[in-house]
Amino acid sequence: MSAIPDEVPKLCEACESRHKGMCGALQVEQLAILARIAHKREAKSGAELLAEAEQADVYANVLSGVVKLTKTLSDGRQQIVGLQFAPDFLGRPFRKESHLNAEAATDVVLCTFPTAALERMIQETPELERQLYRQVLNDLDEARDWMVTLGRKTASEKVASFLLLIARNIDPDSDAECASITFDLPLTRADIADFLGLTIETVSRQLTRLRTDKIISIKNNRCITVPNLERLATRAGN
């Protein structure tokens, strides 16, 4: 009979998902089981992680970077429907095929594990099931908020809302009202326009306006600094 581990596996010690994500619902012995079958995967920006209607053999935790989720129409057009950040869970338990395309919007690091093993653990661990259920509900709340952004907000508010979304997910400590944060845009201007239902020219014009009003500063066309998140939230109509 094998001994029950009493220490968190080394793979999990510094992992954000261990405390805030899916794995926060697991006991040490369950983490040890998962760590034995888990693999770290690195992917470059633009790499396809999962294709729509593809057989889903693995699930993953996002350890770093940003993942872009898209849906494809019958004529080949794509729509960005969401973004995932650390420590989000990537996958749909108990569904045999993926219903979305997942692409690395930036360089990403994932912790992957076989679907069968995780689904078995979900059935055996009510708290893990509840943790994943909570994430689904949070995703639903965010999707409803985003419907308001797309349906009712002005172009200026949409672009500010997008920047606020990135800022609050890139830095977990960015909730402080007067916090300052710097980050690289994870999407191209074209992708931002697609995500917000705007033209590329409108996105560029609104970014310039935010910079002129000193809500943000822009370096090298991609690096964004937000000196005061409260001002950005106000511009976003929050």
TrEMBL record:
<dbReference type="Pfam" id="PF00027">
    <property type="entry name" value="cNMP_binding"/>
</dbReference>
<keyword id="KW-0805">Transcription regulation</keyword>
<dbReference type="InterPro" id="IPR036388">
    <property type="entry name" value="WH-like_DNA-bd_sf"/>
</dbReference>
<dbReference type="InterPro" id="IPR036390">
    <property type="entry name" value="WH_DNA-bd_sf"/>
</dbReference>
<dbReference type="Pfam" id="PF13545">
    <property type="entry name" value="HTH_Crp_2"/>
</dbReference>
<feature type="domain" description="HTH crp-type">
    <location>
        <begin position="153"/>
        <end position="230"/>
    </location>
</feature>
<dbReference type="InterPro" id="IPR000595">
    <property type="entry name" value="cNMP-bd_dom"/>
</dbReference>
<dbReference type="InterPro" id="IPR050397">
    <property type="entry name" value="Env_Response_Regulators"/>
</dbReference>
<dbReference type="InterPro" id="IPR018335">
    <property type="entry name" value="Tscrpt_reg_HTH_Crp-type_CS"/>
</dbReference>
<keyword id="KW-0238">DNA-binding</keyword>
<dbReference type="InterPro" id="IPR012318">
    <property type="entry name" value="HTH_CRP"/>
</dbReference>
<protein>
    <submittedName>
        <fullName>Crp/Fnr family transcriptional regulator</fullName>
    </submittedName>
</protein>
<dbReference type="InterPro" id="IPR014710">
    <property type="entry name" value="RmlC-like_jellyroll"/>
</dbReference>
<keyword id="KW-0804">Transcription</keyword>
<dbReference type="InterPro" id="IPR018490">
    <property type="entry name" value="cNMP-bd_dom_sf"/>
</dbReference>
